[in-house]
Amino acid sequence: MVDNQNIEKNSNSKDAVPNEPKPTWNTEDGFNSSIVNSRLTKAIAKMGWQTPTEVQELCLPYTLAGKDVAGFAQTGTGKTAVFLITVANRVLAMKAKNSSPKQPICVVLTPTRELAIQIESDARDLFKELDISSLAVYGGVDYDKQAKAITAGVDVIVATPGRSRDYASKNILKRSNIEIFVCDEADRMFDMGFIDDVEFFLDKIPDSAQKLLFSATTNDSVKELAFEYLNTPEYISAQPDSITPELIDQKAYICDAQNKLRVMIGLLKEHNPSCAIIFTNTKLTGEWLEFKLNNNGLDTDLITGDLPQRKRINLIKRIKAGKVKALIATDVVSRGLHIAGVTHVYNFDLPDDASNYIHRIGRTARAGASGCAVSLVCEDYGDNLDKINQLLGDAPLATEWYDPAYDSIKDIARNPYEQKKPEATARSQGKHKHRKDQHPKGSQKSQRRGKRSFTKPVAKPQQKLSTTTNQSLSLIQLFKKFISAIFGKGKSS
Length: 493
Known about the structure:
Rossmann fold
């Protein structure tokens, strides 16, 4: 087991490991440091990164020196830049010595395809003038094409666990050549069941390889993982006293489930956000809400786990281009949505996992910007508020009643569950009642099946024999009895 007390001591952002001097970093000079390659410094400046954030200031002196690090910091604080700068500096040093192999020397694992695409896009922007190549590797696209790109030669791959493990198992991706291994959002790797894939890499890469783990939450499981696989790592925490960013204005409105739609419509019209993410706990609720908002004149899009890969990528591009004002998402899918400029986050449903509240609202107020997070507290998920407030500690969510003016808002959208009238008799029509038009929590069974249809199958009315048919059968039966009687008498004589 990990000595948590010792880890907490070392994870203090102001303390260094007892027997080692803490590396210094003069933030007044920005990223101009003797340990940063001069070409890389220019590339960083072109990215618009001028002053290191807290997590960058704390981590970079160690990561650039080649040490293993387990870093804990909120979403949007600059963790991605820590490992991209570290990787670039290492690759440039290897290329200067002509010691860079043809195979990838750095592997970055991420829990979702969207996050892999986003990180690789940032890497490409940073690397483009440094002669460093990168590739995003994930499922749902041409397997052979990605395999050929790896074997043709690439310096850095950003990958999802399943696809990268498959390539490594077939020796397309050679783990023996890996010089730097990065696991981003390690806490979510545990939540999503990918930790075996992470350990598959950690267990087989060279002992000399630098290993970096990053997590948005101070997670004991991540600490255990770091203790087991990392070489005398630095545990660095950039978590402030309040675990939610101070620049986020947090609100929580009490409303019953029947009024949540009216409140959501009222908030969107009042706030008029330039870019918003609306979270629901289930895909079924997300589909219902998208239908309702769009048919009430509010342009929204929905991203779900079963959306085809090409459509997902195109949707993300539209979001980043400012063509989507409101996006409805669930927790798992949203983890890859690192989008600059999100001004508002709405929790249509309070999350069942309290830590997801931190991840959700962390989509706004990124890179020093301000943001707004609004949660709706209803009878369905109201119990989750206690767990969230326990996590928030000294800064719990204060609840208030919603603006009563929202009660006058009319829902002009039809019932999405309304079925088309079947061609049947008036008597059979009376047997089938429409489902209530209210937001669904959604059963786990229906979620697993991935049903998107809003209509409920209509049972066919039981067919009954007509009066004419019944009369015909009666005459035939009488005729048979008559014949049987006549021939029966003849035989007996």
